[in-house]
Amino acid sequence: MKFRIKELFYTLQGEGVQAGRPAVFCRFSGCNLWSGRPEDRASARCPFCDTDFVGADAGEFEKAADLAKAIASTFPALPQSAYGERRPYVIFTGGEPALQLTEELIALLHGFGFELGVETNGTLPLPPGLDWITVSPKAGNPLVTVSGSELKLVWPQDNCQPEDFDALDFQHFILQPCDNARNRANTKACIEYCLSHPRWSLGLQTHKWIGLR
Ligand code: SF4
User: Fold this and answer.
1) Strands (E), the chain
2) pLDDT score, position 133
3) Which residues contact 83 (CB under 8 A, 6 or more apart)?
4) Cβ < 6 Å from ligand 1: which residues?
5) pLDDT score, position 37
6) 8 and 24 in contact (C-beta within 8 Å)?
7) Distance between CA 168 and CA 195 in Å, rounded?
8) CB atoms within 10 A of CB 90
9) Ligand 1 centre from 176 Cα, in Å?
10) Which residues have CB under 8 Å from 210's CB, separation 6+?
11) What single-letter DSSP state applies at residue 182?
């Protein structure tokens, strides 16, 4: 199987519990809930998406080893001491990374000494070995990943309430305002929900405020 990569870039994580942390983002092409084409938006199984995941602008890789090398070379040339107690961090995102992510790629990147996170819609099985799992549920699409590091719910969504996920086994529960024409009202609703349900924390897309990729 060829790995099809939309983008590979080094930046700061903008969202969730790890917001602010430097990371290489590996954005896989394709998603199982939408084609990514505007003309298919009405029939998409995911009602919103703020990401371009169509195409393979950062390349197609025949072998996991070649993709692992490309990811490694996206980090700046820094001594390990620059990371302190941390390991260099890679975030697999998309699109839906579970469509392409493999155990072999994970093992190769661990061999480089990297810590590995994933941002998934949770509807497809993930290979084992990931260090940080963020699941972002989309209404009407049952989860197969029901445990992990962080459940990040973009909200409000029709037919989807935060309490639908309370029984799941995540370390952190994040409510992130849906970024649409009702952004202000969505943010207010998320704040009010968190204040009255303190297991949930407000999550913000900080990269959008400061113009980070
Ligand atoms: S699941 Fe994620 S990548 Fe896929 S269409 Fe929805 S928001 Fe976009």
Assistant:
1) 3-12, 22-28, 59-61, 89-93, 115-120, 132-135, 147-155, 169-177, 200-202
2) 98
3) none
4) 31, 33-34, 46, 49, 51, 53, 94-96, 121, 138
5) 96
6) yes
7) 20
8) 28
9) 15
10) none
11) T
H helices of the chain, where? 64-74, 103-111, 183-196, 206-210
What is the sign, positive or negative, of the torsion defined by CA atoms of 181, 166, 168, 22? positive
Structural contact between residues 42 and 103, judged by C-beta atoms closer than 8 angstroms: no
Active site residues: 25, 31, 46, 49-51, 119, 207
Q: Closest Cα partner for 30 from 54, 56, 48, 59?
A: 54
**pLDDT tens digits, residue range 136-169?**
999 999 999 999 999 999 999 999 999 999 999 9
Q: Hey, what are 117's tokens? A: 């996170």
Global pTM exceeds 0.90: yes
Question: What is the Cα–Cα distance from 82 to 47, expressed in whole angstroms?
Answer: 41
At 96, the amino acid letter reads E
Could you tell me if 80 and 30 are in contact, meaning their C-beta atoms sit under 8 angstroms apart?
A: no
* Dihedral in degrees, nearest 10, Cα atoms 55, 58, 60, 63: -140
- 3-210 has which fold? TIM Barrel (3.20.20)
How many angstroms separate the alpha carbon of residue 154 from the centre of ligand 1?
A: 11
Q: Are strands 132-135 and 89-93 parallel, antiparallel or unpaired?
A: unpaired
